[in-house]
Amino acid sequence: MVKKALVSEKIDRIVFCLNRIKRFQNMSFEEFKKDQDAQDIVVHNLFLAIQNLIDIGNHIIADDVFETPGYYGEIPQILSKEKVISESLALIFKKMISFRNIIVHEYSKIDLAKVYDILINGIDDINRIIDEIIKYANL
C-alpha cells in the first residue's frame, strides 16, 4: 500500500520547486538567455521536481509490488501499465527523465531553448502527472 505521507511530502517538494521557477515565466527567451542566475534556478528546480516524481514512481512501484524497473526510463511505462498515470503522460514523464539525465550527466550541453520551453509549457505536464498520482493514491 502506498505510504500517503511520503507521497504527499514529495508532492509538496515538487510544488515548492515549481513555485520557485514560476517567477521566471514572465521573462522573454532573450532575457532568459542572458540571466545565468535564472537559468541555474530553473534547471536546478526542474531537476529536483523530476527527481521527486521519479522517487514517487519508484515508491508506488515498490509498495504496490509492480514490475521492477531496470532503469529510470521504465518507471513511466510501468506506472502507465498499472493505470497509475495515463499513457500520454507516461510518454511526457519519460521525456522528463531524459531531460533530467542530461542535467545530471551533461550539464554544459543543456539546450536553453528546451529549458525555456519547459518553463513556459511543461509545468502543466508536471501538475497533470501529480494530479493522476494524487487520484491513484487517494490523497
Automatic annotation (TrEMBL):
Keywords from the named record: Hydrolase, Nuclease, Toxin-antitoxin system
InterPro entries: HepT-like, HepT-like_sf, Type_VII_TA_RNase
The keyword Hydrolase is assigned to this record: yes
Domain of life: Bacteria
Family listed: Belongs to the HepT RNase toxin family.
UniProt-recorded name of the protein: DUF86 domain-containing protein
Protein's organism: Caldicellulosiruptor morganii
